[in-house]
Amino acid sequence: MEDLNPSNFSFSTSRPEEGPIDEVANPLPRAVLRMNNHMLLDGQWRFALDDDDEGLREGWASGHTYRETAQWPGSVEEHLAMARGHQGAAAWKDQIVVWYEREFNLPEVAEPQTRSMLQLTFGACGYETRVWLNGQPLKTIEGEEVHYGEYTSFTYELDESNLHLVNRLTVRIADNMDAETPRGKQESYVYKRGGIWYQTYTGAVRSVWLEVVERNRLRSRVGVVSVVEDHLVRFNLTLRIHDPGDYTIRLQVFDPVTPNRKEPLAASDFPLHLEAGQWQQRVVLEVPSAELWSPEAPHRYRLVAQLIDSEGYPAQIETLFGLRKIEARGRYVYLNNQPIYLDGILYQPGQATYEEMQRHMHAMKALGCNLVRVHIAGIDPRIYNLADELGLLLWVEVPSPHSSTPRSRENHRAELLRLVTLSETHPSIIIWSLYNEDWGAQDIATNAETRKYIIDTYHFMQIAYPQFLVVDNDGWHHISYTGRLKSDLLTAHLYTPDLARWRELLDRLVGGEMEGTAAFPLVVGDPFFYRHQVPLVVSEWGGFGFSGYGGPEDAEARTNTIRAFKQELRRRPIAGDVYTQATNIEDERNGLIDPHTGALSVPEGLLASRQMEYLQ
User: Fold this and answer.
1) 3-class secondary-structure state, position 373
2) pLDDT value, residue 3
3) 248 plus 132 within the same structural domain
4) Residue 383: which CATH number?
5) pTM given for the model
């Protein structure tokens, strides 16, 4: 196998500078930047299909003859197609087990081994992943022998005693059509491929890399909570400690756009004694006269965070962050204490490449959107960074299971925690949806246990992640408990191609009619009486061009229809809307943006509206 490690390449841990360096494009799918070398293990791997699931029993991790190769990253479906000689992606209908293997040379490490270690990170891989190094099973930092989930990164620390000059890395990936696991809109035993349900896209879907990190360090996850009135920023940090002792967390905040970037705007030290293990710590820093982040002015600051040991050695990470406040109050959503109308669009990236997703984001901005609803899918975290930069608000969602059971709820909560932990750096993310249209919560109207789980999760999010608004079940069947909505927004999915019917539905919605507006009652549980005490958002509408939705397919007629429907929205006390949708995906042919080039099929600015025009 080709050696990806050049002969003069050496690894080093983070090198603190006198001040932050100029912004560097992040080559890795994560929000945090480490100023060290890394080695991507992307490329050609050996590959084997394990149809009879015999690899574990026969000890393939100790040695196996692989007859195929596959490109990492890439989906299992693509790799199956190549192995079987098919054109296009090969489908699987029950379960799949595949193995990957490759070698890598042990890189030279510039730092003393007593201070540093090699770390292996998978950007995303799933749904069930096991990893071996030189035939020895690895455990993630969290202690997992098997990692579950396919949307977020996970990491292994490599024991020096198990490292050789040439190392063999073996990966087993398993998945099935289990409706109790978070799947989003990928098919399952319950929802089959076709219509709004898509082919599976799983496996080795994101990069994998090696890097040298300190034994005692800050992990690559930083939570940011700002309360704009007090000029304080609360940073949630995760610390990884191997050597107990006295440490200092040092935070410095710089303005990356001012000429003098070596003098921090704010700085503070936080001494603490740490035992071995992984620890979460919140620290608070005052940033006086800071500019706020908004779609019109997406101002960001650079955080340099160091964990300094008793010998004065600093382990350093950096990230960009913005200060903003989001609130649902009365009829409207408030950003930085100012009412904002959410001009949104539904975005389903599907199997789009990172470069294609970048084009999509720019195109959605050109359409006049200030909000992108990323629909029950995991995406490359660098897209969150791009949204931060562009000033695009994001509404993100937990990929849903397809059945409502105690186990599906356990899996749902685990997926939520994995996603939110790795995305709370970004000022662009303002809304989280727990469920969508009852998927994975089909018994929400009849099962008190399902409602209790959603209520408890909503309360947890309010306390643990106050920087986000939370929607319990988007579209309909929101939960009322003692007359209090357990959702920060009252959302409705309204589809009709008829303008007169559209006006009728909107009037019924703003008039507080909980039944007969959307496909199902808007609220379940205890009675809820709408009196403008919560923002209304039409979180799906349009779909013009999709044969199942109706509406004009001609581009000019579609443009005129969208404009007329949008005007009706803005004439009413509605807080925002989300047009369906950005790009075509499989059988859904209702996009406004070319999925490959990012070109618009309608005029720029079509989905924009003047923020204060109808706010009275």
Assistant:
1) strand
2) 37
3) no
4) 3.20.20.80
5) 0.93
